[in-house]
Amino acid sequence: VFESSSAASKAAAKEIFRVITSKQSEHKHCVLGLATGSTPKALYAELVRMHKEEGLSFKNVISFNLDEYYPMEPDSIHSYHRFMNEVLFNHIDILPENVNIPDGLLSKEKISEYCNNYESKIEALGGIDLQILGIGGNGHIGFNESGSLQNSKTRLVALDHITRVAASGDFGGFDKTPRTAITIGVKKIMEAKQVLLMAWGEGKSNIIKRSVEETVSNQIPASFLQEHHNVTFIIDKAAASKLT
Ligand code: F6R
User: Fold this and answer.
1) 102 lines ligand 1 (CB under 6 A)
2) Which of 53, 97, 145, 227 is catalytic?
3) Whole-structure pTM over 0.95, yes or no?
4) Residue 234 burial class via C-beta count within 10 angstroms: exposed 0-12, middle 13-18, buried 19 and up
5) Exposed e or buried b for every residue in 203-227, given b needs 16+ CB within 10 A?
6) Mean pLDDT across the chain, nearest whole number?
7) Residue 145 known to be catalytic
8) Residue 2's beta-bridge partner residues?
9) Which of 135, 148, 208 should be mutated for ligand 1, with most atoms under 8 A from CB?
10) CATH class held by domain 5-126+139-204+221-235
11) How remote is the CA of residue 156 from the centroid of ligand 1, in Å?
12) Before 74, cis peptide (omega within 30)?
């Protein structure tokens, strides 16, 4: 628990720095699982600063983003492709061929094969070394909404009402907000060697409490993380305020 989200974001960036550079010293690639949304923005800004001022290189990094709205044009202002380019990838030395973000332009019949390949690619690289997560007000991780199973795979999902309401401000209204998205499944998140879940503000305090202190349940997918062997919730005081 940190005093502020900015101190917490810096701590998360330090841990990513440690993992990337320790892999570099072994001449190995580093597989990062990345999230979008408002939560990791300060983290990505700190990683950009570390790249520019402390020489942190991303040349050995292979990234996999958690999710993308479907359908979605990659250059739309709403797309997670564009978000990641603007907040991180355009400012660091990651190789473009090492960036993976679910494709929001696929035809429906190609989605399932695409999702299987997304997972196979992660497996062929030895799995995710470090997974960054935010958390939805309903406890979703990625877009694994309430009801997602612990062994769920990468797939097309219907977004919850509460998720669409949360996103509707960005889309200029609920009716214009996408109904579906492609998300990595819970299984790949649980297989990551290390997980950092971040959450800021009082608005997340209820779901943080339920995820950490209540019984594991598929109604709150983040609660599955209670069974992960190396997970850290990096939260600010406000998000921690309901913990007992
Ligand atoms: C985004 C993602 C989502 C968000 C969550 C919190 O890639 O997977 O699970 O992390 O909806 O969003 P923010 O950070 O905007 O509160």
Assistant:
1) no
2) 145
3) yes
4) buried
5) ebbebbbbbbeeeeebebbbbbbee
6) 98
7) yes
8) 236
9) 135
10) alpha beta
11) 17
12) no
